[in-house]
Design goal:
Helix content: 25-40%
Domain DNA mismatch repair MutH/Type II restriction enzyme Sau3AI: 56-154
Structural class: alpha+beta
Pfam family, one: MutH
Number of domains: 1
Keywords: Cytoplasm, DNA damage, DNA repair, Endonuclease, Hydrolase, Nuclease
Largest sheet: 4 strands, mixed
Shape: globular
InterPro entries: DNA_mismatch_repair_MutH, DNA_rep_MutH/RE_typeII_Sau3AI, DNA_rep_MutH/T2_RE_sf, Restrct_endonuc-II-like
CATH topology: ECO RV Endonuclease, Chain A
Distance between the termini: 28 Å
Function: Sequence-specific endonuclease that cleaves unmethylated GATC sequences. It is involved in DNA mismatch repair.
Radius of gyration: 18 Å
CATH class: Alpha Beta
DNA sequence: GAGTGATCATCT
DNA sequence: AGATGATCACTC
């Protein structure tokens, strides 16, 4: 077992730690870290992600930054079924709905977060107890030209609609790789956005998510090599 | 409320 | 069965 708590000093060290976890059931990792193991994720949706953050020494917190800012790496766990297909979309970051005039893809939060991602697959069906799910081989990924092009097209299209006051028209069907969906504590959570007439409206906070077809493809591209 | 970690619950 | 829209826990 690698040393928890210590922050990795280099990307290679981080990757080594992640590789040492491969094959381990989540319950074993949790026990080593003195963490409770829930029977299901219904009330602990972030349990797996937070367990891996703790194990790999990621900075906890709610700052809109990468998990390892000094390394330029974002950590993401991704649930896979037995066929290595993603069971869920991947949350990237919240979407700005106001003051977006000067934003560009190059400086966007989406591009920053996805510029380098350490993917930690977690294998297990939805009905499998979290503790029994297995940690898979990690993948350090940077979007290739085609992937970045796709992400950029989607981001620009979605952001244009938002800037035009059409956020309420955007559904999860927009975009090939990236999609916009609600991201909130519940349906009563509201925030300001631009309305159809250029005025302010109240709407649900939104987040950018990677579609499963995109993450499935990027995982396949690497693991089939 | 806004951000982090995400999966749940329901509809098609 | 897979995707969409809704929701859970926690921190600040």
């Amino acid at each position: 077992m690698n040393n928890p708590i210590l922050r990795p000093e280099s990307v290679s060290q981080l990757l080594e730690h992640a590789q040492e976890l491969a094959g381990l059931p989540l319950a074993a990792l949790a026990h080593n870290l003195n963490q409770p193991v829930p029977d299901n994720l219904r009330r602990d949706k972030g349990w797996i992600g937070q367990l891996l953050e703790l194990s790999l020494g990621a900075s906890a917190g709610s700052k809109p930054e990468q998990d390892f800012p000094e390394l330029g790496v974002e950590l993401k766990t991704i649930p896979l079924d037995a066929a290595a297909r993603p069971l869920e979309t991947t949350f990237v970051c919240v979407a700005p709905l106001l003051n977006i005039a000067g934003l560009s893809w190059e400086t966007s939060n989406v591009r920053n977060k996805l510029s380098r991602v350490l993917w930690i697959p977690v294998i297990g069906e939805r009905d499998m107890p979290p503790g029994e799910r297995l940690i898979g081989q990690p993948l350090l990924w940077t979007p290739n030209e085609e992937e970045e092009w796709l992400l950029r097209q989607d981001w620009e299209e979605i952001m244009e609609l938002i800037s035009l006051g059409r956020v309420q028209e955007i559904t999860a069907r927009h975009g090939q790789a990236l999609q916009l969906r609600p991201k909130a504590a519940n349906g009563r959570a509201l925030t300001d956005a631009i309305g159809p007439d250029g005025n302010y409206i109240q709407t649900r906070p939104r987040g950018f998510y990677l579609k499963t077809s995109f993450t499935a493809a990027l995982l396949a591209r690497h693991f089939m090599l």
